[in-house]
Each structure stands twice: as structure tokens, then as C-alpha cells.
Amino acid sequence: MSISEGTLITPADFTGAGSAGDVSERGKFGVFGGRFVPEALIPALDEVAAEYEKARTDLAFIREFDHLLRTYAGRPTTITDVPRFAEQAGGARILLKREDLTHTGAHKINNVLGQALLTKRLGKSRVIAETGAGQHGVATATAAALMGLECVIYMGAVDCERQALNVARMKLLGARVVPVTNGSQTLKDAINEAFRDWVTNVDSTHYLFGTVAGPYPFPGIVRDFARIIGVEARRQVLELTGKLPDAICAAVGGGSNAIGIMHAFIEDEGVQLHGYEAGGRGLETGEHALTLTAGSIGVLHGSRTYVLQDDEGQTIESHSISAGLDYPGVGPEHAWLKDSGRATYHGITDAEAMDAFALLARTEGIIPAIESSHALAGALKLGRDLGPDATILVNLSGRGDKDMGTAMKYFNL
Amino acid sequence: MTTSLEEFLTARRAAGRRLLVPYVTAGAAPGWTDVVRAYADAGADAVEIGFPFSDPMLDGVTIQEASDRAIAAGTTVTEILREVTALDVGVPLVAMTYGNLVFQRSGAEFCAALATSGLRGLIVPDVPLEEAGDLADAAAKEHLDLVLLAAPSTSRDRLRQIAGRSRGFVYALTRMGTTGERGEVPEQAARLGRDLKELTDLPVLFGFGVSSPAQAAELARHADGVVVASALMRRLLDGARPRELGEYVASIRRALDGAVDREPDEHATLPRHRRRPDPQDQVGPLPRG
């Protein structure tokens, strides 16, 4: 079903089966998902959903997306065997999917290019986005610059301070960065503020949502644009090893890189799917982002999913050394994958993640994002469980340059 | 059987009154229940009580700040319900909160708790029509009116469905955006009010951006009344006492009554909600004289 020689993505890649999420069910993944938003946004969400439904089966749109992935984002990204690192995993074979090698250095570029194209199809001239660590903000500002769209990024004031370099990047790329001083002044408040902007400026503006959370149709759209990660990796692992991997490991904050690599494997029943959340300082300290592992079902930012909340339903501030995983919610499809038993979710503490971060740097010459280091730490544990014959595919979702400030402090460099 | 929110508001409207529903965030200041009493004494037709939520997506800075203060002060649903149970102010009380508090245990349990505490209505701005089905059933079982919202962006077909499913009144947004004070009355509000009045006999109340007595009176000409939230909560955050908040509500009450007095209406013999707007009249039917 290839559209032409050398293409990365086909119409079938967009509509890969294996998910309970069905457009006709208004984005319900089992009991999760849905559209818990103000009435004023419903027409805009309907418009985005309708346009995306047309786009995903439109060969011209798919070709354009494919062209950008190849010629701008730097796809396909390779897979890398990391035997020296894997010695610490009981000798299991570990393969990294190298999303760190994409333009802007993380998997976020896939989604923003797709949604920026969608923005143009919608006839809108302005994009807004939320960002925590600044990675999605930088990616959005990049795509907006490429396509000549006005760009406004909402970022918690606390995060602006922690990630000053990314604020400068976004400004250089022509975006306006608005520090959010409400609430906890972090990612969740940036999302609240972006929704407020959208409800006010919906005629001109597309909300370029950064993860597989939020109201229908965002969880499905963001997943489809990130799905290329797993589509490529599945082919690459088969070609390299002659078989499918035994397990997939990915870090989970909102969940876009994880769903991106997992989705193409959902129907491969022999392939275990493992998501790793930020355990922060440990479950018992209460300072973590263990939404799936320790949260409960609630409604946050437009969908029903697992949420870190108190008995009353007030959200609890999360903690992680990795800003990209520091979020008290999670995408509804992960909630469904958890409850259906298809995927398993675990916690990785700050310390475990930082150990894996340093280990990969020293043994393989690759400095990973701290987010991705949670998946690496998970793979080390999993390898010991599965034994030396196992092959584990890890989504190295981003590079660690942005994390050097944290690393300098943590390791006293 | 006690009077429902809808019956109460409809009866007041039938008596020729413009409806006024002021809002207070529960727990935003000590003694907030005195604010509810002051509102009622000042001529409110119902009082909206906000149950504070940590992530109030539809609210502007004023109500977010009020909510943050209330949560920081340890306000809980249980405590609000306990205080509300002891309140008898002679007009219906309506809860306003977000889905995550409502569904925390279950919609049915939340509605039952509200009803037990004597509340008559519920507004949940992040639960739109297609997510409201089960909650509407649960509310109906408890004789609690689930009020749905309509926005200027809402299509006519959806307006019809919203008007059909809403109970108590229809909460019409004056504009696209969040709660907060703003100046003029937008044309889109006039249009929405007119469309809703054509579609339903339910009272239609405007909310969002009602920031002065004169503006409230102007808006009320396009519907049956107004909800006033941020203008009051800003005063409360600035330290206004219940008596002063009551005086402000009284000034809106006078403006609304004045609007009724001032405007002659040649159709006054018809029940107001049965009248249809004159196509020549860009701002909808004239209020009753």
C-alpha cells in the first residue's frame, strides 16, 4: 500500500488497527478519553476532527507529511545496538530507536509537522501550544517558522526560569513566549492557559496540542503523527534480527513518544509493552509523577484518564527531575492499555534515571534526554528479568543537551 | 415536593421580573455564606455557588484566584455541603463546578449529596452535551436541574439539543472566552439570546463579562436575566465585605428593574417567553413594560 518508492508513511500507517480509540465513538478508549471541554470549544474540536478525517486519507497530505519527515525532520531515524550498555541488563540485546537524531532533537517534531500542515488545511494563521520543559514549545516554534504561522507558547513561569535556554530558542524562532503565573506555574497551568487563549481566539487559531492527552480528537491525531516511530522501528528490527523484539520500553509523561513506538506493535501479542513513569523521589515521598501507577481515574484537560489527585478531585502537583514527565495526567489510550492489560507501567526514580543517563553516555557515547533515561533504566531491569536471549527495543525519544544544567548539578560536573 | 429551580425562575419571570443570579466561590473568604445571604437579601433570584477546582479551565484570572484561595484555605466539597445545608435564604442555590469533582465518586453520588444539602441546580462547564447524558439522568433522579451552557459558536442544531436537555435555565455565554469583566455588549450575545428564546421556553441567562449594572440591564434586554460572577469576586478578593457585595447586587437589581420599567412593550399581554422577536428588531423583543 506504498504510495511511492522510498516513502516512510502510507495511508495504512495512519489507520493502523489495534486501538480501541474509534472516531465514531468520539475518541473513547474504553471508558477513557472523550471531550470534557467548554461548549464554546466544541465547534472548533469538531472542525479539527472533520479536517483531520479528510487529511488522513488524502494522498496529497500524506505525501507532504512524508516529504517533511524525510527532508526536514531527518527520517527515517536509525536503530542502534548498544552492547556495552546492555552488559548491565543481564546480557539482553538492547536496541535504541534514535529519535534523538531528528531535527530539534526529540520525537516532538513528528507531531508538530503534521499538525502545522493540518493548521494550514484548516485555513488558520496562528498556532498556540503549551510546553513544560520547552521541547514541545521549541518544536512548535520550529514548525511555525517553517510554515509562516504566528506562534504563541504558554509556559509556566517556574518552567521559564528552569528552562531559560529553550525560552531563548523559541524567541529566536519567532515565537512569543507567555509565562503563566497561575496555579503551580507549571505544565498543567500552561495547558489551562492555552485552552483559555483558544476559546477566545478560536477563529484564527489552532491549538497545537503536544501530547496524546486532551479532548478528542487530539489523542488520536497526536498518536497518528507519532506512529511513524514504531512503524519504522518494527521494519528495522525485523530486518536486523529477523524477528520482532520481545519487549518495547518507553518513557511516559503525557505519553506521545510511548504511544508512538508502541502503537505499531499492539497487535503483535508476543511483544511486551512497558511504559516507565517518573517515580521522582519515590512513591512513598509523594513527590513523583506516577499517574498510571499510583493515580486514580478522573477528568483533566478534556479527557477521562488517570490523574494524580486527592480524595476531593483536586489535582496534585507532580514531581520529576525530568520536566517532560512532570505532569499529573496521562493520555487516555495509555489508561486503556493499562486497564486492558496490553501494556504494563512502572515507576523509575530520579536516581535510577540519572544512573542510566550517565551509563549510556559512558558506555555508548550517547547522551540521552532524562525523559528517555527512564525507559533506559526500565530496560536494564527488564533485561535482567527476560534473560540474555531477549531483544528489547527502547525509544530514545530525545537527546540530552537540554538537560546539561540538571546533569551538572546532579553529578557535580 | 419542593419547588424546582426551573419552576422558581419561571414563576419569577412570569411576574415580569428580570432574573439575577450572583455567584460566589465557596471558601474564597471566611464567612462566605454571609455573602450568599447578602445576595439573597439584595434581590437575587438564585445564587450560584462555585465549588473550587484546582484547574478551572473556563474561568479567567479572578475566579481562578478565588478558587486557589479557597483550596489553600482547606475548602472541601464535604465542608461546603455542610455549610450549605444550614443555609435557608429563600431562593434556590445552584452548584457550579468542574467534572473532576462531580465524577470523583460518581455523578449519581454527587447529585444525591447536592440534593440532600438542599441545592436545586448544577452547572458543570466542562461537561458538554455529549458527555452529559448520564449526569443529566442522575440529576433528574434527584430533582436537581442540570443547567447546560450555550456559546456564540454553538450551531443552531446544537442549540436546539442544548435547549432540549437543559433544565432550570440555559446559561448563554455573552462571548467567546473565559469568565471575566468586559465592557460592551457584543452583537453575538444579542444573536444568541434571540436564537435561544426562539428555541425554548426555559429562562435564558447571560453570563461571562457582566461587569456593570448598566451592562447587566442592557444584556437582560436580550434574554431573561444575567449571572454575575467575576465583578463580584474581584470585589471579594479586594476585601469587600458581604454587606458591600450585597449593595453591589442591589445596584444591579435596580438597574434590571429599571430596564423593565423604562421599556414600553406593546406585547405585554402575552407571556413574555411565548413572544417571538420581530425580524425588524436587531436586538430581539422589547422587555415587558
Automatic annotation (TrEMBL), chain A:
Keyword check for Chaperone: no
Entry EC number(s): 4.2.1.20
Residues annotated as domain Tryptophan synthase beta chain-like PALP: 72-398
Reaction it catalyzes: (1S,2R)-1-C-(indol-3-yl)glycerol 3-phosphate + L-serine = D-glyceraldehyde 3-phosphate + L-tryptophan + H2O
Top-level taxonomic group: Bacteria
Modified residues annotated as N6-(pyridoxal phosphate)lysine in this record: 108
Record-stated family: Belongs to the TrpB family.
Quaternary structure, from the entry: Tetramer of two alpha and two beta chains.
Protein known as: Tryptophan synthase beta chain
From TrEMBL, chain B:
Active site: 48, 59
Ranges of compositional bias, category Basic and acidic residues: 259-269
Enzyme Commission number(s) of this protein: 4.2.1.20
Reaction(s) catalysed (UniProt annotation): (1S,2R)-1-C-(indol-3-yl)glycerol 3-phosphate + L-serine = D-glyceraldehyde 3-phosphate + L-tryptophan + H2O
Xref: Pfam families: Trp_syntA
Pathway: Amino-acid biosynthesis; L-tryptophan biosynthesis; L-tryptophan from chorismate: step 5/5
A GO CC annotation given for this chain: cytosol
Region (Disordered): 259-289
Keywords: Amino-acid biosynthesis, Aromatic amino acid biosynthesis, Lyase, Tryptophan biosynthesis
InterPro entries cross-referenced by the UniProt entry: Aldolase_TIM, RibuloseP-bd_barrel, Trp_synthase_alpha_AS, Trp_synthase_suA
The organism's place on the tree of life at top rank: Bacteria
GO molecular function: tryptophan synthase activity
PROSITE patterns the record matches: TRP_SYNTHASE_ALPHA (PS00167)
NCBIfam families for this protein: trpA
Function of the molecule: The alpha subunit is responsible for the aldol cleavage of indoleglycerol phosphate to indole and glyceraldehyde 3-phosphate.
Record text on subunit structure and interactions: Tetramer of two alpha and two beta chains.
Family designation: Belongs to the TrpA family.
The protein's name in its UniProt record: Tryptophan synthase alpha chain
Organism of this sequence: Herbidospora galbida
Lineage: Bacteria, Bacillati, Actinomycetota, Actinomycetes, Streptosporangiales
Name of the coding gene: trpA
